[in-house]
Amino acid sequence: MATSNQIKCKVWDNKQEYPLTTESLRMLLENRIPLIRLKEFSTNQECEMLVEQAQLFNFDCYQDVNPKIERIGITVFEYNRISKAAYFQAVQRATKLRDCIMAASFNPLERLMMQIRECTGATVRIASEPFYSSYYAGLIRKIEQGTQLHIDYAPLEQSEWEVGTVISQLSWNLYLKFSPNNHGQTRIYDRQWQPGNERYKLDSYGYSDTVIADADAIGFQPYVGDIFIFNTRNFHIVEPMDGQRVTFTSAIGLLPNGEIILWS
Ligand SMILES: O=C(O)CCC(=O)C(=O)O
Ligand SMILES: [Fe+2]
């Protein structure tokens, strides 16, 4: 495991956020910059319409996750412990519901995939599992009570799935609704998960603060209509807030052959 000194030598351009370009995406995948921001990716009206449509359906709570996180859609994180077969059985129904919500509002997933395709020239697609089908991608998620300190990294968490073969993993969040206040920020540490960190795991997904000792961090205040993309092998946390905080989100992974895949 690298020492904190070695890690601190890698300089993140602290505070600065980059627009989406071929170069910034490459740097984010290589963890050489902390954040990409797509300002005004969607209009306030589009965001409102999506939330309004989503609210016609039930948000479910993540299993085994404290504090509570609610979402529409399914995650490999939860089915990991059940079975791959059960996940792929649930994909069709979840996809139908997501498509119904997007058809009555707008489709941020396709819009973002198109933009990544345009700026990289790479194949950008929904992840798909040999002998099964496409994955589900695109959660509508409420994180209002915050998260624990965590990472999202399929080579660790889903090693037996296609998504477990990614060499780098990002997350994009489109902020659909955000009650105006100074809380609910997302904080990303300049410290990537290493196998030795597993002994500091607290429960189904949280880690003790020991893993981020001395690490630099960057926090960002979400704005409705903006997308933030960051590298989720870095430890990160969402602060709790009073009020509503609704996002549209999925993971983005880079495969060894250069393809870019999305899933939830
Ligand atoms: O809601 C956010 O700002 C980030 C949530 C998160 O942990 C993630 O997207 O990996
Ligand atoms: Fe996360």
Main sheet characteristics: 9 strands, mixed
Q: What is the molecular shape?
A: globular
Rg computed from alpha carbons, rounded to a whole number of angstroms: 17 Å
Task: List all distinct small molecules, including ions and cofactors, that are bound in this structure.
Answer: 2-oxoglutaric acid, fe (ii) ion
Q: Span from first to last CA?
A: 29 Å
Q: Would you identify the regions where 5 or more consecutive residues have pLDDT less than 50? A: 1-10
What features would you describe in this structure?
The chain has 264 residues and is α+β, with helices and mostly antiparallel strands. It has a single domain, classed as Sandwich (Jelly Rolls). It is built from 7 helices and 12 strands. It has helices at 4-9, 22-29, 44-54, 76-79, 84-103, 108-120, 154-157, and strands spanning 36-38, 60-61, 70-72, 124-126, 139-142, 168-178, 186-192, 217-220, 227-231, 234-238, 245-254, 260-263. Strands 1, 2, 3, 4, 5, 6, 9, 11 and 12 form a 9-stranded mixed beta sheet that branches. Strands 8-7-10 form a 3-stranded antiparallel beta sheet. A hairpin with a 5-residue loop joins strand 11 (245-254) and strand 12 (260-263). The longest helix has 20 residues, at 84-103. The radius of gyration is 17 Å and the shape is globular. The model is unreliable at 1-10 (pLDDT under 50). The protein binds 2-oxoglutaric acid and fe (ii) ion.
